[in-house]
Amino acid sequence: MSDEYRNHHYVPQWYQKRFLLPGEHHLFQLDMKPDTFVDPRGVSHIVEPLKWQGVRKCFTADDLYTTTIRGIETRDIEKYFFGAIDAKGGPAVEYFEQYEHPARYWGTSLQDILLYMSAQKLRTPKGLSFLGSKFGTRDKHTILRQMMRLRQLHCAIWTECVWLIADASQSDTKFIISDHPVTVYNRECGPRSWRCKEYNDPEIWLQGTHTIFPLSMNKVLILTNLSWMRNPYQCATNLRPNPNPLRNAIFNFTEVQILRHLNEQEVREINFIIKSRAHRYIAAARKEWLYPEKFISKSDWNRYGHGYLLMPDPRPINWGGEVFWGNKDGTGGAMDEYGRLPGDPDYSKETKNRTEHDTLQWFKGEFANLVGPYRRGRCMPAMSLEPERDADDFHQYHVSLQKKNSKERYQQRREK
């Protein structure tokens, strides 16, 4: 059989090219678990961990997706399965990297980026090892079959998240890329947590888990569970409402937050999270970007950005969120903000008990007091983009929401 499609890129070349400097064709790739070799004198040496090489040689493994069916070796997964996903994923990543309000025609960009990200999270060596552990097998054919079957595993949960596209253009340090580029962060699950051992990650359906996906060296997509936005005072490792990932969900393009500009410390903190969750390799256009630990402390894991590094601005977040629709044939339907249908006994439960309503108001006040009147992310809930700065009376209103009760909850959370 031909060697075509034998060297498999588990991070596509087109994606890597989004992290190149203008005019450059190489990245600095760091091996965090370098091999060793023994020289003719019997002395052991560590292989040079840092290499400057083209994207064709970065993030590859021979025959990673090659499997045998009825005794015949096949590489169709690389050629056809990922080929089709990548062909649509590239333009979708470009669309959201350039996203602005009002949104230009999105076509299938949402479906395409969700499918690409979901498959990307499973297709890496770390993702495949995770699947093998969940299904209790090391059989490559079984693992690859489950990967293809579960390619949409993360799509519904991410659809219901609050989307923030943050910008690093004002920082000298830019985003790095890892061998597991769809990264997750939960402030209660530090690098030494049992949820982060070996190939494990905190699940995206845990309340406080953020998903981090760099779109380029200057832009990053951050997805945050709505229930965490409305109540960041709860346990971050509890399950979010309706954690079932295999179902339908509804997305609102007008609620995507943009125009958050990150400072250099924030970019370094995000890079440190990406590096901490990588399996073995990271890469960047500048080698100094590969060492964020020179500026970031692992012991501060739960305190990056005062604990809110990845949080979108809560002030545009509305209470409620039920969606109703009608069809041409006279039928219709409804869905609450957590993807539950009217027949579900928990349908709109949060709206009825109003706990999230109160904590959301408290959080808006805390956040306004923390960052000031300028919005840290703006969306377009009506017919125009939200103002950059809150009016003085509106800002004072938010600050006043931080009552004694919210302050006590805030202090209790800090003490845990």
TrEMBL record:
> One Pfam annotation, family name?
DUF4238
| Protein name, UniProt field | DUF4238 domain-containing protein
